[in-house]
Design goal:
Elements: H1 3-13, E1 15-19, E2 24-28, H2 46-58, E3 62-66, H3 78-84, H4 86-97, E4 101-104, H5 115-121, E5 124-127, E6 132-135, E7 145-150, E8 155-160, H6 173-188, H7 202-219, E9 222-225, E10 241-243, E11 253-259, E12 262-272, E13 278-290, H8 291-297
Parallel strand pairs: 1-7, 2-3, 3-4, 8-9, 9-10
Antiparallel strand pairs: 2-11, 5-6, 7-8, 11-12, 12-13
C-alpha cells in the first residue's frame, strides 16, 4: 500500500470532533517520554512541558497529542515511563477527566492501537504523594487519526502522526523497532545518529514531508502532523501541511494553538528577564492566521 493510500485509509476511518471560534485547542507531538534514564530525551524538557500543559489546562484548552507521546520502542513497559514522569501523567489525567484529552499514536507508540494496551496499562497509576493507585485514562480510546470539523465553514482539519508516509515506520514498524531497540539506541548513546529516523536524517525528513505535501495537494485536505520533529507553518496559498514540531528539541518545545478561529505556532523555552532571572516563557513563532484565510485560498 502506498503512502497516499495509507493516509487516506486513516482519514476515512477517523472520528470527527467539531469546534468553533469559542474553542481552544493545543496540538503537540513527539514527546518521546522515557523512563527517566540518561537515554530519556524528554527529561531535559519535562519542566517546560509541565509548565506549558498547566497553562493550557488553566486556560480551557483541549489537548491533542499527535503520536509518539511515549517512547515504547526503546522502552518495553509504559509503567516505568509513568513512574518517571508521574507529575506529567497526573496533569494529563485532569484533561482526561474534563473530556479535553485526545491521544493519537505514532510509530514509536504504535502498540497503543491494541485496545488491550489501554485497558491494562492506562487505567490507573500509583501516586507517590497519596501512596495509592489513582485513575489515569480509564476507558480511553487511542486513535490513529482525528478530524476537526470547523463548524463555521464545515471545512475539515485532518490530524495524524505522519509515519504513514514512511514505509519503514508504518508497514515495517516491527523491523524499525528492532533496529532502534537493539542497534541504533546503543550507538546513539555513543553519539551515532540513527539514519532510519525521519527526525534525525534530513534526507528522510524531506522525503516524508514531500509525500505528506503531495497527499495534501491531491486530496485538497488540511493536514496537521508530527513525526519529523520539524515545525511547519505554511503561508496562505501554500499547501495546507502543518507540523507541530516536537517536545524534545534541545532548547524548547513547540505547539500549534487554535483559538478564536485562528491558528498559530508557538514555542515554550527558558527565557531571561532584564534582571537575569530565568522563567518559562511562551513565544509566538508564526501567526495567528485565520482558518478562513487558509480555506478560501485552497483550491
Amino acid at each position: 500500500m502506498s503512502a497516499s493510500k495509507r493516509l487516506t485509509r486513516v482519514l476515512n476511518s477517523s472520528k470527527v470532533l467539531s469546534f468553533d471560534d469559542t474553542s481552544r485547542i493545543v496540538i503537540m507531538s513527539d514527546c518521546h517520554r522515557g523512563d527517566g534514564s540518561w537515554g530519556d530525551n524528554f527529561s531535559n524538557n519535562q519542566n517546560l512541558f509541565f509548565a506549558a500543559l498547566s497553562y493550557y489546562y488553566e486556560n480551557g484548552y483541549n489537548y491533542i497529542e499527535v503520536g509518539d507521546g511515549d517512547e515504547l520502542w526503546e522502552n518495553r513497559k509504559i509503567d516505568n515511563i509513568i513512574q518517571a514522569h508521574s507529575d506529567v501523567f497526573w496533569l494529563m489525567s485532569l484533561f482526561y477527566v474534563d473530556n479535553r484529552l485526545y491521544m493519537l499514536y505514532g510509530n514509536h507508540d504504535i502498540i497503543k492501537r491494541d485496545p488491550k494496551f489501554a485497558k491494562t496499562s492506562c487505567e490507573s497509576f500509583f501516586c507517590d504523594s497519596t501512596n495509592s493507585s489513582v485513575p489515569l485514562f480509564p476507558g480511553i480510546e487511542m486513535m490513529e487519526g482525528l478530524i476537526l470539523n470547523y463548524k463555521n465553514s464545515n471545512h475539515r482539519i485532518f490530524i495524524t502522526h505522519g509515519h504513514q508516509a514512511d514505509i519503514l515506520n508504518s508497514t515495517l514498524w516491527r523491523l524499525a523497532r528492532f533496529l532502534v531497540r537493539y542497534l541504533w539506541r546503543p550507538l546513539e548513546l555513543m553519539g551515532v545518529k540513527d539514519p532510519t529516523s525521519a527526525a534525525k536524517n534530513n534526507e528522510r525528513k524531506n522525503t516524508v514531508e514531500k509525500r505528506l505535501i503531495d497527499w495534501v495537494n491531491k486530496e485538497n485536505q488540511m493536514l496537521i502532523a508530527g513525526h519529523t520533529h520539524r515545525p511547519v507553518f505554511p503561508q496562505v496559498g501554500e499547501p495546507l501541511y502543518f507540523n507541530s514540531g516536537s517536545c524534545v528539541h534541545p532548547r524548547c518545545i513547540t505547539a500549534l494553538e487554535i483559538r478564536n478561529g485562528a491558528i498559530q505556532l508557538v514555542k515554550w523555552a527558558i527565557m531571561t528577564k532584564p534582571d537575569r532571572t530565568l522563567y518559562v516563557g511562551r513565544e509566538i513563532l508564526e501567526g495567528p492566521v485565520t482558518l478562513e484565510d487558509y480555506f478560501k485560498h485552497s483550491r
